[in-house]
Design brief:
- The structure is a single chain.
- By secondary structure, this protein is mostly helical.
- The chain is elongated, with a radius of gyration of 19 Å.
- It starts with a helix and ends with a helix.
- It has 5 helices and no strands.
- It has one domain: Four Helix Bundle (Hemerythrin (Met), subunit A).
Length: 132
């Protein structure tokens, strides 16, 4: 009986580790996609006709696909932070394609908002990993 209990405890621990690793991988993929999108957006040339079309740029860098993975396994607070990170990235896109230079107040504000949203998301991801 003791062996059976020990095996069950070991199995639960191993399962918890696998779950944490899966979650960590999904988090890393999402953050990587978000960073690729941000870097690509920062290099865009002004193109006022592209304002409001940042979802295309974000989608091309896998952000939405990675977000769908999160939606399958993450809790609501984290999903809210991920959505906020997406929205701030869309705002940053619109500022860039509107033609604001990197030293313009609008650009700096949008860049900082995107950065702050990413930091808040990472904090929530760390908390989720501690809870798992």
């Amino acid at each position: 009986m003791a062996t059976l209990v020990a095996d069950h405890v070991r199995w639960r621990h191993d399962q918890s580790e696998r779950d944490r690793d899966t979650l960590r991988t999904a988090f890393a993929e999402y953050l990587t996609a978000l960073s690729r999108a941000r870097d690509a957006i920062a290099r865009l040339e002004p193109s006022p006709e592209r304002v409001g079309k940042g979802h295309v740029e974000i989608g091309e860098h896998g952000v939405y696909a990675a977000q769908q993975q999160l939606e399958l396994m993450a809790q609501q607070p984290l999903l809210g932070k991920a959505r906020q990170a997406n929205l701030s990235m869309l705002d940053f896109h619109d500022v860039v394609v509107s033609g604001h230079a990197s030293d313009a107040a609008e650009y700096v504000h949008a860049w900082r908002a995107a950065h702050q949203a990413r930091v808040a998301l990472i904090e929530e991801m760390r908390a989720a990993l501690r809870r798992t």
